[in-house]
Amino acid sequence: MATRVFNLGFIPKVIVEVLPYLSVTFLIVLGTMVFASIVGFLVAKAKIKNGVTRHIANAYITVFRCIPSIVLLFLVYYGLPQLFQMLFHVDISFWNKAVFVILTFALLFGANMGEVMRAAYEAVDGGQTEAALTVGLTERQAFFRITFPQAFRYALPNLANIITGLMKEGALAYTIGLIDMMGKGKMIISLNYGAYTLETYLALFLIYWVLTKAVEISFGQMDKRLSRGGKTIAG
Amino acid sequence: MLELKNIHKSFQKNEVLKGVNLKVEKGDVVVILGPSGSGKTTLLRSITFLERADKGEIRLGDLVLDAEKAGKKEIHQIRKKTGFVFQNYCLFQNKTALENVTEGLIIGRKIPKAEAVRIAKEALDKVGLSDRYDYYPSQLSGGQQQRVGIARAIAVQPEVILFDEPTSALDPELVSGILAIMKQLAKEGSTMIIVTHEMTFAQDVATRVVFMDGGEVVEEGTPREIFSHPKEERTRQFLSRFISDSDYVI
Fold first, then answer.
1. What pLDDT score was predicted for residue A179?
2. Which residues on chain A are in Cβ contact (under 8 Å) with B60?
3. Which of A44, B133, B209, B244 lies 20 to 30 Å (CA to CA) from residue A140?
4. A112: distance to nearest CA of chain B, Å?
């Protein structure tokens, strides 16, 4: 088979075709972050409280840290509908694929989020909470006014890592047929009978690179803005 | 005015307070002395429920709290009547010196902001920080941070101010400044309970000295009684260590 000449001009074409699907990628990242934060919050709380729930949280973290994302994605996508069918006689297999993707990544990244939140919380000196209580704040006020703003800043660099990681892992969603940027790229490749494979992947690489850089920069900015009263953490 | 009755506290199986009684009158400056692990700090912390005692009664003014049963509301009330100065300052790192002081006034006591700022500035001026209102704790020296800590505690006009080893974390040359502020507060008639190892300060400023060891009050009296004529052997032993220490200094 004769090899075709690499066509640089095809890359912008791919980018234009793929970019509309950025919204899908955003949806996945946003949805996952919301649910992963909820999961993470529960995990962090359980680990800080030091009760029986702590063991459950630890077990959860251990299990989900060890599952490759693609394995869990298939388990959730193919397994969950069967489970629902069996238990509740409800067919959920027609649900939007994004639901399964978000669920998968929320479970996976929830474990990481939990650890990030716990570490950030513990990085804030507990004496400040006590001091807040002694000047008449309630526990809730002490948490939201004193501990949380500081913990949030400590968590920023790790949050940026989680978001960029999630964005890139999210590209796996195409494997269950969700059309995000990666899925669209795959379609372009098939439509051209594999002719522009390299150009398409390069275009995708460029988009993901810009996205990752954008997250990095905006988190760096946020860190700077929040860093009054302390050192900046991100470089 | 403040009365602690039969305060018990254990951490796991370690009994830290074995039924402590303490009575403090308005204007008293009570210094609590004792070797480390004697329960001084725990006693102080149990007054504001930073540590909840297992048993006992805490009276402050017309508030009477059962240490074991006191609810959130009662605890909140007693905290509003006390100021607490921490060994490690425990300033809010995300707030300026001024905000550290106004926080308790605005959020804890619902004082209007303008009024709170006025009170806070007054408190900061008093501890000699009139030029540091907008500095964050990380921009202040240890001594300055502890001054903010004291300003934060006195701004709320507490009925009693509790000091938990306020100078222990400071460089030696910064200690005297803090002690001078505390002496001034005592002169103005503030009621204070102070856990400290500063013997000279205790002799100069205290109206009463309480010696604790092994989770109980061993002896209490005027500074003269405790320092010159201690009745108990344990008090004598404890003080002799400090006296021999000061021989080196001289």
1. 87
2. none
3. B133
4. 26
Test A150 with B94 for CB contact under 8 angstroms.
Answer: yes
Sheet containing strand B2-11, strands side by side: B14-24, B2-11, B55-60, B63-66
Q: What is the pTM of this model?
A: 0.82
Chain A positions in Cβ-Cβ contact with residue B83 (cut-off 8 Å): 134-135
Q: Which of B48, B82, B107 lies closest to A137 in CB terms?
A: B107
Share of chain A above pLDDT 70, in %: 95
Task: Check B88 against A127: CB less than 8 A apart.
Answer: yes
Do B152 and A150 count as a contact with CB atoms less than 8 A apart?
A: no
Q: Which stretches of B34-111 are assigned E, i.e. beta strand?
A: 55-60, 63-66, 82-85
Triad B98, B100, B105: Cα angle to 5°:
90
For A230, nearest residue in chain B (alpha carbons)? B138
- The reply to whether residue A136 touches residue B79, judged by beta carbons under 8 angstroms, is yes
What is the C-alpha to C-alpha distance for residues B146 and B157, in angstroms, rounded to an integer?
A: 18
Collect all residues of chain A within an 8 Å Cβ-Cβ radius of residue B156. Answer: 135-136
The secondary structure of residue B207, as a DSSP letter, is S
Task: Using alpha carbons, list the distances in angstroms from residue B106 to A187, B98, B119, B160.
Answer: 60, 12, 11, 20
pLDDT of residue A232: 53
Strands B208-213 and B216-221: antiparallel
Q: Give me the half-sphere count of Cα atoms (radius 13 Å) on the Cβ side of residue B168.
A: 14
Which pLDDT belongs to residue B249?
Answer: 46
Reduced DSSP (H G I as helix, E B as strand, rest coil) percent helix, strand, coil of chain B, to 5: 40, 25, 35
A128 to chain B: closest CA residue: B90
Tell whether B80 is within 8 A of chain A (Cβ). yes
d(CA B161, CA B77): 15
Number of residues assigned to chain B:
250
Neighbours of B139 (CB within 10 A): 14
Residue of A nearest to B86 (CA): A131
Q: Which residues in chain B have their CB less than 8 angstroms from residue A230's CB?
A: 93-94, 136, 138
Q: Which of A91, A80, A75, A84 is nearest to A175 (CA)?
A: A75
- CA dihedral of B102, B106, B109, B110, whole degrees rounded to 10: 160
**A interface residues, B as partner, C-beta within 8 Å:** 124-125, 127-128, 130-138, 141, 145-146, 149-150, 228-231
Q: What is the pLDDT of residues A145-184, one digit of tens each?
A: 999 999 999 999 999 999 999 988 888 888 888 888 888 8
Question: What is the tens place of the pLDDT at every residue in B144-202?
Answer: 999 999 999 999 999 999 999 999 988 888 898 999 999 999 999 999 999 998 888 89
Q: Chain A contacts of B85, Cβ < 8 Å?
A: none
Report pLDDT digits (tens) over A102-144: 999 999 999 999 999 999 999 998 899 999 999 999 999 999 9
